[in-house]
Write a structure and sequence with these properties.
By secondary structure, the chain is of the alpha/beta class. The chain is built from 8 helices and 13 strands.
């Protein structure tokens, strides 16, 4: 398992053909993706925490190579407020992609200039650095929406470039309309939470997600080239064995590929066949 500067060196050294992407898992819903020459950090959770089961693989000072840092919602293990000001210094040209509803408060509270933020909302897209980034509403137990602005506090993101599309679901349950939103893309990679939900956790303010069966059925409906389960490992009492997901996928959707990632281990997804044939 690579950690710290060794992991950063591996990311920087990774060279990919057009239409390929590489990814590294940091635990929970934290992923690094290299796509179209850009390095994206999704929900980097790097703060020490007494209840963490998996220690941070990186210190925020290590992160000198981020082009984009994406935060799906304002919970510590997704938008890690303690480390974002440090990330703003260590990756001094990086932009922060957040739900538009949160942009002003994050800029103010974290003392990061507002012009370093990109605000997105459901069905809104931006183009930056050769990437198209789209917001997809997420239902973190509930499909919450701000009454005053109509904006969503929880988002997933689809990042597309060079014929490849990556979906990071953030924290979400299935809701009516989610599949229709995502069918705009032929997804190549989907990062899906599988930790589920129940009354005990909700009563303790541990807001839930898809069960592993629901995540598998979402993958079955969308048929990404690769599905990666996440958000199952970090905190005792909010875990699930990822093998339950992969076994269910193997039996119910045997044509679909899924991988349980190793911490800090590089995984490369080669270009889709249609891109290979064009060359």
């Amino acid at each position: 398992m690579k950690t710290g500067r060794e992991l950063i060196k591996d990311i920087d050294a990774c060279r990919l053909p057009e239409g390929a992407c590489a990814l590294w898992w940091l635990g929970q819903q934290s992923f690094i993706v290299k796509l179209a020459g850009k390095v994206l950090y999704f929900d980097p959770f790097l703060s020490p925490h007494k209840k963490r089961k998996i220690p941070p693989l990186l210190s925020p000072q290590d992160v000198t190579n981020a082009d984009l840092i994406l935060g799906s919602h304002d919970h510590t293990d997704h938008i890690d407020r303690r480390i974002w000001p440090i990330l703003a210094e260590s990756s001094h040209t990086a932009k922060f992609v957040v739900p538009a509803l949160l942009l002003d408060s994050l800029a103010r509270d974290l003392k990061i200039p507002a012009n370093r933020f990109i605000g997105l909302d459901d069905k809104r897209s931006i183009k930056t650095g050769g990437l198209q980034i789209s917001g997809v509403a997420a239902a973190h137990e509930f499909l919450d929406r701000d009454a005053a602005t109509g904006r969503y506090p929880y988002l997933g993101y689809v990042v597309a470039a060079h014929g490849i599309a990556v979906y990071h679901a953030g924290d979400t349950c299935i809701y009516e309309g989610l599949q229709a939103r995502l069918r705009r893309w032929q997804l190549d990679v989907a990062f899906l939470p599988i930790n589920g939900r129940d009354a005990r956790r909700l009563a303790a303010n541990c807001i839930g997600n898809m069960t592993y069966q629901e995540a598998a059925d979402l993958a079955g409906a969308l048929a990404p080239r690769l599905t990666i389960p996440a958000h199952f490992d970090m905190f005792a009492g909010n875990c699930v064995a990822p093998e339950l997901f992969s076994d269910y996928m193997r039996v119910k959707y045997p044509a679909l590929k899924t991988v349980i990632c190793g911490y800090g281990k590089r995984l490369v997804l080669n270009p889709p066949e249609q891109l290979k044939r064009r060359r």
